[in-house]
Write a structure and sequence with these properties.
The complex is a heterodimer of chains A (418) and B (478). Chain A contains eight helices and 20 strands. Chain A has 418 residues and is of the alpha/beta class. Chain A has a domain of 254 residues. In chain A, strands 1, 4, 5, 7, 9, 11, 13, 15, 17 and 19 form a ten-stranded mixed β-sheet that branches. The longest helix of chain A has 20 residues. Chain B has 478 residues and is of the alpha/beta class. Chain B is built from 13 helices and 24 strands. In chain B, a hairpin with a 2-residue loop joins strand 3 and strand 4. In chain B, helix 2 packs antiparallel against helix 3, helix 10 packs across helix 11 and helix 11 packs across helix 13. Classes of the chains: A alpha/beta (418), B alpha/beta (478). Strand 20 of chain A pairs antiparallel with strand 24 of chain B, so a sheet runs across the interface.
Chain lengths: 418, 478
């Protein structure tokens, strides 16, 4: 067993709080789980060796971190430094309640405990680690019929040699509407294990943004698990940069008829980075729609992994599901491993997936440079063109405006290394 | 209408009968001694025995793979008999007249063109009845062209240098569990060598039959196409009905040297088991070809039989400008399970591969496409196109797609697309409105769905494949 896992189990046995009844089951599973190797199908292309022998500090230091909120965006800020929530926001809009995981009112505890580990599949190793160790995070509850216009912006900042085990549980009540932004950033040697479970109830809407901007030595394993009830809607945008180890598991469960999920994901990897996105869409019931578009640009010596699974259960007749994955490799030593999977047990469905891997269109580059655009600018423009459609589709325009310069800077960095 | 369907569903497997031919059969069980005995019966030289033993020792240390999307009871390798030969082989028939008439009658029932039909069809048949090649015809005509087409057991004696040079070079002994088992206990199969610059004067064909009860069949086929040569090889199978599952673990190795071309076509119609999947053939096959510079290997398969199919005909595109193709129709019905696909390993520059896979699932069956497209960093400007479509007939079956795409070369282009749909009500309505009964309509739609693959098959085979599909689909419409 790896030192990391042994340590996690040891620490998990010391945890005793209001979630303990649910943690016990995960602990039993975790004790039987072995450390993933290249032979473990879900970790075939992602090595966790950089984490194997590591142990980090947890929640002990409260260092200063420079962080500026998103310009022009009026948001409810939840800033975590090394897993410590800096300030619980006050004066929340009516119908919205947010509780810090360490201090959950008893009435909330009842439902939150019930929902804990329901949307998240049990086989994720780091999900299990999070189950037993999570000691910070928030429980968000949006009351029935309420539309929260102000997005909730959750940020994780982690100091060197620190680790955070964060759990977020969000319930969007019937006919309610909310926007969540999950934002992980940093580059120092540290670990973020960030698991969020979303329960979108009947006719409710969730707008979800997940920005995984942790690079270099910042190790990240994270999960976003969304359960959709009847007529519920999910509109998710994921943007990922890579680091030594960066893995995200996205699970969407269609539990009620006429649920709708739109997922756009982008990954942009600079020199030597690694990013792994595993998405699983479970259609358990009929008449639901999934539309997933994933685009990635992979720079020098970087490796991108995408595994997109769509599982149509026996009763999920009249499902419409589409998955599209396009990749650009910038150099010959860039790598992409993509696997779009379909597993279908119902016959009256329309499902399709596609995957492509190629390089930047040389003739387009030539066209631009021959018209006086410098090569660097042309590269940035072409790269941007590849993913811009997904940025345009972000429902929140302010967020899209904030994101564009960040992406541009990213492209400059990726191209400078060429 | 429903009576008709019921009828068709309950129809017995048409090629299901057991011929009564006395057989010399080993008692069930597998150990080194069995390997030695097989080798001794074949009168093999020492190097061949050592080769088998090495494989057997490797196999003992391996574990049966469980990653495929298949569900079957654990195979007891000790309960299988590893050798069975038609007894009349002992006094070797010199010509067709000397062949056991019952054996010939078996082929007759299956419509195999072994006598004059075969002359008309221009097909040379190396018939594998259980484990020993019984009859090989057209040998002389092939010899004229310098083509070697003989049982591999014969090739071991007659052409040891060629066999030594190529056997196990594409699928080595340690390749996988089933291939290792095959290496240890293979009883026979075909060996083909096409000399430099030769175009094989006829299509080569082997009909396989599994006949002896409780006998695993382990063929080994090796085809070597020397520089600038061309060969088209057909493989077709059908097996009699029986109750116990039969293990089949074949290995096929293709070597296409510079500028050579090999076309390998398979129609597989082994007994799929009864409606609960009981008694069908377990088919675990390793097929792989290597392409040298400018060479081309094309796999075409129509898979309609077997309870379990585990089969991934692959191409290693080693030489620059080499081409790999895979065309497949896999039909599963009843309780059949198929996990099949291909691997295209691009190593050389400007290599190209095309994958067209059509999966049809009916009844309570499960049909999976599993493919790998790998672009190595040396595969500059390589190109792959993959299309896998699934058709579902009925709401109790499953269709799955597991494509692995691994690219480490920026100038390589990989395209993969997959769709899943059912025979639409509109299509059915249109056909029925024009006077076709539902069964005909489905058969026509399915035939259209598979057209891209059928057109790759040699003509006679394409007709057979179409017919096979039609028979297999009977009773699937509801």
């Amino acid at each position: 067993m790896s030192a990391y896992l042994a340590n996690a189990i040891e620490q998990g046995q010391l945890v005793n709080d209001w979630l303990t009844p649910k943690r016990l089951g995960s602990m039993a599973l975790l004790q039987q789980t072995s450390w993933p190797t290249r032979k473990t199908e879900s970790w075939k292309y992602t090595s966790v060796r950089s984490l194997e022998k590591k142990t980090f500090e947890r929640g002990t230091t409260n260092d200063e971190h420079a962080f500026s909120s998103i310009a022009g965006l009026d948001a409810i800020e939840l800033v975590f430094v090394n897993g410590v929530l800096q300030q619980l926001p006050e004066g929340l809009p009516a119908g919205l309640s947010i509780a810090s995981l360490e201090n959950v009112p008893e009435s909330t505890q009842v439902w939150a405990r019930e929902q804990f580990n329901v949307a998240k599949p049990s086989q994720h190793l780091f999900g299990l680690v999070n189950d037993v160790l999570a000691d910070n995070g928030v429980i968000v509850d949006v009351a029935e019929g309420v539309t929260i216009d102000t997005p909730i912006h959750l940020v994780n900042l982690v100091s060197e040699n620190n680790e955070t085990q964060q759990r977020v549980i969000v319930r969007v009540g019937q006919n309610a509407k909310v926007t969540m932004i999950e934002h992980n950033t940093g580059s120092v040697e540290s670990l973020v294990n960030h698991v969020a479970e979303y329960f979108v109830e009947e006719s409710a809407e969730l707008e979800l943004y997940r920005f995984s901007f942790r690079t270099e030595k910042a190790l990240t394993v994270s999960g976003a698990h969304v359960q959709l009830a009847k007529k519920a809607k999910l509109n998710a945008t994921i943007v990922g940069f890579g680091s030594e180890l960066s893995r995200m598991d996205l699970d969407v469960l269609h539990r009620g008829e006429n649920a709708f999920a739109k997922i756009n994901a982008i990954y942009l990897l600079a020199k030597g980075e690694h990013f792994d996105l595993h998405s699983t869409i479970e259609h358990e019931i009929g008449h639901c729609v999934t539309d997933e578009t994933v685009r990635g640009i992979v720079g020098e010596k970087a490796t991108a992994v995408f595994n997109g699974r769509i599982h149509i259960h026996r009763d999920a007749q009249k499902t419409l599901a589409e998955l599209n994955n396009k990749n650009l490799l910038l150099t010959d030593d860039a790598k992409i491993n993509t696997k779009p999977e379909l597993e279908i047990y119902a016959d009256d469905v329309r499902c399709a997936h596609g995957a492509t891997v190629a390089e930047l269109d040389k003739s387009a580059l030539y066209y631009m440079t021959s018209r006086g655009v410098s090569r660097d600018t042309a590269l940035v423009m072409l790269n941007f063109g590849f993913i811009n459609a997904l940025v345009d589709e972000m429902p929140n325009a302010v967020l899209a405006e904030w994101l564009r310069p960040i992406l541009k800077e990213r492209f400059v960095k990726m191209n400078a290394e060429l | 209408m429903s009576d008709q369907i019921e009828d068709a569903i309950n129809r017995e497997y048409e090629a299901g009968f057991v011929s009564n031919i006395e057989s010399e059969t080993f008692a069930p069980g597998l150990d080194e001694d069995v390997v030695r005995r097989i080798s001794a019966i074949k009168g093999e030289p020492e190097w061949m025995l050592q080769w088998r033993l090495k494989a057997f020792r490797v196999w003992q240390k391996m574990e049966e793979p469980d990653w495929a999307h298949l569900n079957y009871p654990k195979i007891d390798y000790q309960s299988i008999s590893y050798y069975s030969a038609p007894k009349s082989m002992a006094d070797k028939p010199k010509s067709l007249d000397e062949v056991d008439p019952e054996l010939l009658a078996t082929y007759e029932k299956l419509g195999i063109p072994l006598h004059e039909q075969e002359m008309l069809a221009g097909v040379a048949v190396d018939a594998v009845f259980d484990s020993v090649s019984v009859v090989t015809t057209f040998r002389e005509k092939l010899e004229e062209a310098g083509v070697i087409f003989c049982p591999i057991s014969e090739a071991v004696h007659k052409y040891p240098d060629l066999v030594k040079q190529y056997l196990g070079k594409v699928v080595p002994q340690h390749d996988n569990y089933f291939a290792a088992l095959n290496c240890a206990v293979f009883t026979d199969g075909s060996f083909v060598y096409i000399p430099k610059g030769t175009r094989c004067p006829m299509e080569l064909s082997t009909y396989f039959r599994i006949n002896e009860q409780n006998t695993g069949q382990f063929e080994r086929t090796l085809i070597v196409a020397d520089e600038g040569s061309h060969v088209s090889y057909l493989e077709g199978c059908t097996a009699p009905q029986r109750d116990e599952n039969q293990l089949h673990a074949a290995v096929v190795e293709l070597v296409a040297l510079d500028d050579a071309e090999i076309k390998y076509s398979t129609v597989q119609n082994w007994y799929p088991g009864d409606e609960n999947g009981k008694g069908g053939i377990y088919n675990f096959v390793t097929k792989r070809g290597i392409c040298h510079t400018n060479a081309k290997i094309s796999w075409t398969q129509v898979e309609t039989g077997s309870a379990i199919t585990w089969k991934y005909p692959s191409c290693i595109l080693k030489g620059d400008n080499s081409v790999g193709e895979f065309y497949s129709v896999a039909l599963t019905r009843g309780a059949q399970q198929a996990d099949t696909g291909t691997k295209m390993i691009h190593l050389g520059k400007n290599t190209k591969s095309t994958i067209i896979s059509k999966g049809i699932s009916a009844g309570r069956s499960n049909n999976s496409y599993r493919g790998l497209v790998q672009m190595h960093s040396t595969a500059g400007k390589a190109r792959n196109f993959t299309q896998c479509d699934s058709l579902l007939i009925g709401d109790k079956c499953g269709a799955h797609t597991f494509p692995y795409v691994e690219s480490s070369n920026a100038s390589a282009i990989v395209e993969h697309e997959a769709t899943t749909s059912k025979v639409s009500d509109d299509q059915m309505f249109l056909c029925q409105q024009r006077g076709l009964d539902p069964e005909k309509a489905v058969s026509m739609i399915v035939n259209g769905f598979c057209k891209e693959v059928f057109k790759e098959l040699p003509m006679e085979f394409a007709v057979e494949a179409g017919k096979l599909l039609e028979i297999s689909l009977e009773g699937s419409v509801g």
